[in-house]
Specification:
With 259 residues, the chain is an alpha+beta fold. Helix 5 packs antiparallel against helix 6, helix 8 packs parallel to helix 10 and helix 10 crosses helix 11. 27% of the residues are buried.
């Protein structure tokens, strides 16, 4: 709706939400009683006109916006694969990407994940660390791709040799036995939550692992891409770590069988 308050105060037309327009007189009166002055003359004064003060580097903002569009594009493709949205949603975002002259190549974590998956013939995830280095993790008989990725990230962040085993066999053995007896599947691998719990147990007797676990905070805001649709369990933990994950619209088992 047209912001009538803004039009009366400045002689300029501005558009704002109807709920903001309807509640503005009440808010204006409250602020006047507190401060003794009219700080804002319109709802537009309170919002849009202040956004520019938050943007101090337009180039960074533009790049972040492009990354968000690509992330939403992949989310929409996965939702379409799972029959949670229609194809038109995917096409609208794709059209926007075309207008902005961006594509999947603008997200540099995609290709490493796909290449790793093709080479190892299994599911894989790539992650861009704060220092700009891209690492990968693959699905194994012991670990899910997400579990392998986080262990590799911990090693990289703490300069731990790749040959060092962070998970103690003494801790892993009873977990695997329980999973085998419960799910009757000897190849059922450990998900990310189980691996983090195992690492926490191992940290009691190993200060190196304790320090390594603390470094997980550095993964906040990092970009990642999976060659498959990550399961809800691993996906939930990756989100809690604040990792920006995108996935190929491929079911986990289909990805392994079709490679």
């Amino acid at each position: 709706m047209i912001d009538s308050f803004h039009l009366d105060a400045y002689g300029e037309s501005a558009v704002n939400y109807n709920r903001d327009l309807s509640t503005f007189p009440i808010l204006k009166d409250i602020l006047h009683k507190i401060t003794g002055t009219d700080i804002y003359k319109s709802p537009t004064d309170m919002g849009i006109n202040m956004v520019k003060d938050c943007i101090i580097n337009e180039d960074i903002v533009n790049k972040a916006c492009c990354q968000e569009i690509i992330r939403r594009y992949y989310n929409a493709k996965c939702d379409y694969k799972k029959d949670l949205t229609d194809e038109a949603t995917v096409e609208r975002i794709k059209l926007l990407m075309t207008e902005l002259n961006i594509n999947e190549k603008n997200r540099d974590v995609i290709l490493p994940a796909l290449n790793k998956s093709k080479k190892e013939k299994t599911n894989a995830i790539s992650l861009k660390l704060p220092n700009g280095k891209i690492i990968t993790g693959k699905r194994t008989n012991l670990l899910s791709a997400a579990s392998s990725l986080i262990i590799n990230a911990i090693k990289e962040l703490n300069h731990i040799d790749d040959k060092v085993y962070l998970l103690s066999p003494a801790v892993l053995e009873p977990i695997m036995k329980l999973k085998e007896s419960t799910f009757f599947n000897k190849t059922y691998n450990l998900n990310l939550q189980e691996v983090l719990i195992a690492l926490s147990i191992c940290s009691v007797t190993n200060p190196i692992i304790e320090k390594a676990i603390q470094s997980l905070e550095q993964l906040k805001g990092c970009e990642a891409h999976a060659s498959y649709m990550v399961s809800n369990g691993d996906l939930s933990i990756l989100k809690r770590l604040r990792i920006n994950l995108t996935c190929e619209p491929v079911f986990a088992n289909d990805n392994i069988l079709n490679i």
